[in-house]
Amino acid sequence: MSFQDVLEEVLADISAYRGQGKVAGYIPALAKVDGQKLGIAAVLSDGRSYAAGDADEAFSIQSLSYVFALALALEHHKSALWNHVGREPAGSPVNSIIQLEMEKGRPRNPLTAAGSLVVCDQLIGRRAPDEALDELLAFLRRCAADEAIAVDETLAMSESHAGALNRSLANFIAAFGNLNNPVEDVLSFYFRQCSIAMTCRQLARAALFLAFDGTDPVSGEAATIPSRSRRINALMLTAGHYDNSGDFAFRVGLPGKSAVSGAILAIAPGHGAVCVWSPGLNAAGTSLAGAVALERLVERTGWSVFV
Ligand code: GLU
C-alpha cells in the first residue's frame, strides 16, 4: 500500500469524527472557520509530500508557531534561554495565569502561551519586533521551501482585540521583570506569529528538520544542532498539548504540538513530519478528529518514539 493510500484510508476511517468537537470561539476571526474542514499531510525523508482532504487550505498556525520561534530563540540564546522559561509540563490550560504567580513570572515551559511570550521577547532581543518577525517568517519560508508564507493581518488584529488574557499574562510576566521589551511590542509579535497562515502540507514540510536531528534531509541545511532538535521534540512530547499532553503521548507516541485552530503537528523521528487540521477541539483544546487521525496513522505505520 502506498503512503498516499495510507493517508486516504486514515481520513476515510475517521470520517465519523469530522465536525466533532468545538471550534475555538474566543478569537472572532477564528470562530468563523468551517468546522467540517479536515486535512492531513505528511512529508517523508526524501522531501516528498503526501496529502489528503483539505491539506492545501491555509489556516492560522496559532501555537504551532511556538515551536519554530523556540528553535530560533535557542539559536540566538542557547541555554541562557532557560533562565527565563522552564522545561516542565504545565498540566494546566494554555493561558493559565495561576501557575505564573506561584512560579514568580518564569513560565513552566516554552509551549504555553506565557512561555511563548517570554520566547518572543527573547527573540526580539534588542531589535524592532518587525525585524524579529521577518526572521521568523524567513525561517518558516526556508524550512517549508515556500516563499509565499505570510501573516494574516486581519486575524492578528482580531487576536489583539480579543487579547485581554494574553495581555494580562504579558503584564504579569513583566511585573516579575521577565520581559525586556515593552509589553505591547511583545504582544504585537506574539499575535502575528500566531496569525501566520499556512497549510498542512507547508507545516509538515517546515517541521521536517525536527524528524532528522535538526537538518533538512532534502537541502542538507541544518536548522539547528542535533541536541537542540531532540530537546525541542522532548518538550513537544511532554508539553505540546495543553492539559492532555500525557494522553496524546499515550495514544500517539510521537512528539507533537496542538494549536487552537485545530492543527496538530507530529514528528516521527527518522521518518517524517505530519500535520493534521480539523478545527473542532476536545475539552483540553486539542483537535478532536486530528488526534484520532494521528492515532490511526501510527497504528498503520508503526511509528513511535517508544519502539
Ligand atoms: N493565539 C492563541 C492564544 O494565545 C494561541 C493559542 C493556541 O494555539 O494554543 O490564545
Structure, explained:
There is one protein chain. The protein starts with a helix and ends in a 6-residue tail after the last helix. The protein has 307 residues and is α+β, with helices and mostly antiparallel strands. It is built from 14 helices and eight strands. It has two domains: 166 residues, Beta-lactamase, CATH 3.40.710; 130 residues, Beta-lactamase (3-Layer(aba) Sandwich). The strands form two sheets. The chain has a five-stranded antiparallel sheet with strand order 2-1-8-7-6. The structure holds glutamic acid (GLU). The site of glutamic acid has 10 residues, from loops.
Low-pLDDT ranges: none
- Going by CATH, what is the homologous superfamily of the largest domain? DD-peptidase/beta-lactamase superfamily
Radius of gyration: 18 Å
Based on secondary structure, the structural category is alpha+beta
Bound molecules: glutamic acid
Tell the overall outline: globular
Largest sheet features? 5 strands, antiparallel
Work out the helicity level: 40-55%
What's the CATH architecture of the largest domain? 3-Layer(aba) Sandwich
> What is the average per-residue confidence, as pLDDT, rounded to a whole number?
96
Strand/helix succession: HHEEEHHHHEHHHEHHHHEEEH
Assembly annotation: single chain
User: How are the strands of the largest sheet arranged?
Assistant: 2-1-8-7-6
CATH hierarchy class name of the largest domain: Alpha Beta
